[in-house]
Amino acid sequence: MSTRSTRSRSLILSLILSLVLSLLLLMVPASGAPSDAESFSGPLPQEEASGEEESEAKFDLDEFELQVDLTGIDELEGSVGRSGQQRGQWRGKYGGVDVSFSLAALTVEDGFDLSAPSEIAMIVANNRGNALRKKGGSYAYEISKPLEGKFGYVPFGWLAAHDTNTGTKKDGYDILIGGVTKAGAYFLDMKIKTRFSDKEWAEFEEWACGVFTYTGEVMDPNWTESEEEARWDRSMPDSIEGNSNNHVLRTKYYIIFTNVGKSTVRSFGKKVDENYEKVRSVYPFEDLPGQQLLPIFYFVNKSEYIDWCVLNISWTAKQAEQSGGVASGDAYSTYHQAANASVHIHEQTHQIFRNRLHLSGGGSWFQEGVAEYICSKQSELNEVKQRAKDGKTQPFEELFTVPSLLMSAGGASRKEGGSVAGGAYTQAASVIEFVKHSKYGKDKFLEWLHAMGSVGRGDLPAIKRGISKVYGATLEEFEAEYIKYWSKRKKVKDWHAPAKKDKKKRR
Q1: Which residue of 8, 13, 135, 288 is surrounded by the most CB atoms within 10 Å?
Q2: Residues of 260-280 as b/e, b for ≥16 C-beta within 10 angstroms?
């Protein structure tokens, strides 16, 4: 068996293991029908911390090259102890309020090779949300944001908070604080029954930034030579081996692995950097200190691109044949086409939403909607106006829960893998236009964008709550405003103009 075949099989096994382990992670107890008021178990059930004596507030976690400082938790009880994914559990008081928490690990050895700490929050939210949806509930973060500090090989951490409630009264939080090292990811899973003011949240975030101090090597934003070589060996198909044009090009925002001629790659690199800036203007985000260049795999022809897809994302050749490019994980892969082909900015938008905006939720309608909107011309959505007038738009309860718009599009063709999609894609893009440009939606567009992108994919109860929180409307009222807008839709000036800044600052 070839080395590449072995590596491919190992990758598949690793992905399967990752899926199985993530499904086992943070499961809801089978008995009873839990509501948001019920606290979930951590990676393992949070039992009463053993021992009456106060435990040490400072300790080392050598496995992750971490120094941990729990100073600020009063009456601390508990201890470090390895059991499955758990590395310790404690209880105490924060600000005079009872708090319990565990420290969990998602190791590379167990198949969790995460590239950013935001992926920890995504795994936890998806697993808790999946379990709750089976019983009519949902799970979403009210806060999900990066934290500055020495959290790991990836030089920033992550904070996420889910509101808990008793009945209809919000009374606490599930809070996650974590980071990513070379050994894998780790996080504190905290439960506290109090509500923070903005000032108290700021104080808590300051405390959270000092809990972990990573003492190991920090990643090079531009990629080290060894990282570059390892990624080439792992991701590039055998079909390009020995090509005299094989090389790597770095731009302001990307590292491009390619076998295309150097002058062509330079032109391509200039265009993808321009696309990056366009996505940033429409969907604002800030680059975090120390984040790595995003990888692009750029091939001479489609057959090599297909080989990449089969090797790296477990597509069949037939599936890859139907696409012009794909964003998967941290990477975008494509082959030589016109530099301004819409597939590039469409798939770059997917890549950026996952790895820069850290908004990978909502569902296929949301992910395809933001990408379709930015790569389309205004006239390409004209058909939605007639459908709205005729009452033939897809009901939002259906649209928002479709697992894959691509699979639901039937025989509808898609040009260049990006723009002018079937009806499901144009309607998804039309939702983005409605919120961004209508008098009803535009002032809170960014707040809505983050609310939708932070919920689990297809989590309808969470989507409804997000719309209610942002616009004070039910899903039916929100949809009625959409139909009203599109039935009378007029030409929009500056269609891809930069988004208006939120009047209310998001935490």
Answers
A1: 8
A2: beeeebeebbebbeebbebbb
Q: Is residue 248 exposed (0-12), middle (13-18) or buried (19+ Cβ within 10 Å)? A: middle
**Which amino acid is present at 379?**
S
**Terminal CA-CA length for the chain:** 52
438 near 365, Cβ under 8 Å? no
Which amino acid belongs to residue 70?
L
In this prediction, residue 135 carries a pLDDT of 79
Place of tokens 């494509």: 334
Rg of the Cα trace of the chain?
Answer: 23
Q: Which of 445, 446, 454, 473 is nearest to 142 (CA)?
A: 454
Domain boundaries along the sequence of the chain = 3-214, 225-355, 364-487
DSSP designation for 455: B
pLDDT by residue (tens digit) across 423-434? Answer: 889 999 999 999
CATH 1.10.10.10 fits 225-355, yes or no: no
Which tokens sit at 8? 């491919």
- Amino acid 336 reads H
pTM of the model: 0.83
pLDDT digits (tens, 9 = 90+) for 312-330: 998 999 999 999 999 999 9
Which pLDDT does position 167 carry in this prediction? 83
Lowest mean pLDDT among 152-156, 165-169, 193-197, 260-264: 165-169
